[in-house]
Design a protein that fits this description.
With 182 residues, this protein is mainly α. It has one domain. 89% of the residues lie in helices and 0% in strands. The protein is built from 6 helices and no strands. Helix 5 packs antiparallel against helix 6. The longest helix has 66 residues. The chain is elongated and about 100 Å long.
Length: 182
């Protein structure tokens, strides 16, 4: 009785936090491809990573989670945190797989001295390909998921429309035969 109600009420904040976290991850996954493409394009155009990020953050929506986290990263850099440490902190704050892949590639590029523009372009291409593959997998799974609703919704109607008249004629025939015998 009351313990069940109390436990349900106590679980509401947990459910709200989980839903909020899930929405935040979805927002970051949604915004990352555009930010990555813009970063790649601007760095290929000759801007440094930080200058490109500054330019993007000036134009991006301030309320989006990815923009907020990159703003925090940018502020940390201005306060003297190293780029590598700032990137690691960014990855740990977001805890989104695609961002972790990006940050790992950026850190490796920074340590090896590889071109940031090339790294960003490769990451943008990889992310685009991953998203395309996910969309294809979802599209391929859709027919399987549609089988049960189709069977439950359309099959009874098809049976009624095709077998109904035949059953009606059969009932009339049987009643005519049995009615004639009596």
């Amino acid at each position: 009785g009351p313990w069940i109600v109390l436990s349900l009420l106590a679980s509401i904040p947990l459910l709200v936090v989980r839903a909020s976290r899930r929405q935040r991850v979805m927002d970051v996954d949604h915004d990352l491809p555009l930010m990555l493409e813009l970063l790649a394009t601007l760095t290929e155009g000759g801007l440094s990573f930080d200058a490109a990020l500054d330019k993007i953050l000036g134009a991006q929506f301030r309320t989006r989670p990815l923009s907020q986290e990159f703003r925090t990263y940018h502020r940390e850099l201005q306060l003297g945190v190293s780029r590598l440490q700032g990137l690691r902190r960014l990855a740990s704050r977001l805890e989104v797989t695609s961002v972790s892949f990006l940050i790992s590639a950026l850190i490796q590029s920074e340590q090896v001295g590889a071109s940031m523009a090339t790294t960003l372009r490769r990451q943008a291409d990889d992310l685009r390909n991953r998203r395309r593959e996910q969309a294809l997998m979802l599209a391929q799974a859709l027919p399987v998921k549609m089988v049960v609703p189709l069977i439950l919704c359309f099959l009874p109607g098809i049976f009624v429309s095709t077998l109904g008249p035949s059953l009606h004629q059969l009932v009339n025939l049987v009643s005519g035969i049995t009615g004639g015998i009596r």
